[in-house]
Amino acid sequence: MIRHALFAVVLLAAAGAGTAWAQSASDARALAALSDKELMKLPAKKVFGSVEEPTENMKSRAIGFYSRGCMSGGKALPVDGPAWQAIHLSRNRYWGQPQMVALVERLATEAKAEDGWNGLLVGDLSQPRGGPMPSGHASHQVGLDADIWLTEMPDRKLSRKEREEIPRISVVKDRKTIDKSVWTEKHARLIKRAASYPAVARIFVHPPIKAELCKWATGDRSWLAKVRPYYGHNYHFHIRIRCPDGSTNCKDQPEARPEDGTGCGKELAYWLGNAPWGSEKKQPEKKPAKPVKPPPPLTLAALPAECRAVVTAE
Questions:
Q1: Least C-beta-crowded within 10 Å: which of 71, 142, 180, 187?
Q2: Quick one: residue 52, left, alpha or beta (phi over 0 = left, psi -120 to 50 = alpha)?
Q3: What 8-state DSSP symbol labels residue 98?
């Protein structure tokens, strides 16, 4: 349910809607009672970010695209498992499609048994019903994304406070260089294992991590095509899986098909700043004459129509 009915009144006032959020009824029911016009004006990240529980009577489905959608029938990753611990529990972002949760559990179990990891620290998956988040991610909206930290799980159960304050340990020195004092072959084996799963569509890592994997990999290197360089992934890596069967309105990302079959060539050089990728020269950006206004917040109207039923379901 939505955390605070009073918060909903504020949302409606901010959206210019004329109907007050009923505080005597459940918040989801009050949402459902709004007209489409009123509902569509609400800021999507605030509505979805305030939902504490998944849908109970809707089948599991990913709806829309990874960066613009929602999910029904979300499943919670257990916060403690035999080979993992979830962190940042206050965010309530340990929900996902059953296939995503199962893959995280499998990766943690196999990494512990075969790759020398004591266990994994699992960061954000999605909110209980997916959708845009109040902070931190543009994607993670349909229950098919998960962040796995590159810091090993300790051999004890972390307290809730420790999980909130756990330090972010980067495995890179800068935009081009891996930190050999932190990076180990265990990191490479873990990422390779994740990329080897057929359900995985993408893995995002900081560019020097991709470069190190390109140096390390031998034999069949086709799994490297899924590993994509992307800034902001220096202390964790991001797993994205394909749309599951039955999610007919889920939009998959195009197949990763780098020119050289691995993404270790021109594309990686571009991310490392060593060579152009695409155009030979970039035109200098013109400074705007006036300050550019930030775009308005994404409203429910911008999400797939089915997300209205998801967010109002009791």
A1: 180
A2: alpha
A3: H
Joined tokens for residue 197 = 């799963």
The set of residues, in sequence order, having a beta carbon less than 8 Å from that of 46 and lying 6+ positions away, is 7, 11, 134, 297
At position 99, the amino acid (one-letter code) is Q
Confirm whether 138 is domain-assigned: yes
Q: pLDDT tens digits for 42-68?
A: 899 989 998 999 999 999 999 999 999
The dihedrals phi and psi of 66, each to the nearest 5 degrees, come to: -55, -30
The bridge status of strand 61-65 relative to strand 236-241 is unpaired
pTM tops 0.90, yes or no: no
Q: What DSSP designation does 165 have?
A: H
- In total, how many domains does the chain have? 1
Whether 115 maps to a domain, the answer reads: yes
Q: Residue 70 sits in a domain of what CATH number?
A: 3.30.1380.10
CA angle 22, 28, 34 (to 5 degrees): 60
Residue pLDDT, tens place only, 211-263: 999 999 999 999 999 999 999 999 999 999 999 999 999 999 998 888 889 99
Written as one string, the DSSP assignment of 199-217 is TEEEEEE-HHHHHHHHHH-
Determine the straight-line distance between the first and last CA of the chain, rounded to whole angstroms: 7
Q: Is residue 154 part of a domain?
A: yes
Q: Which structure tokens are listed for 164?
A: 């909130």
| Residue 291 placed within a domain | no
Cite the beta strand spans of 133-261 per DSSP E: 145-152, 200-205, 227-229, 236-241
Q: CA 204, 207, 210, 211: dihedral to nearest 10 degrees?
A: 170
Residue 198 is part of which domain span?
58-281
Alpha carbon distances (Å) from 120 to 134, 163, 186, 254, 270:
26, 13, 12, 29, 31
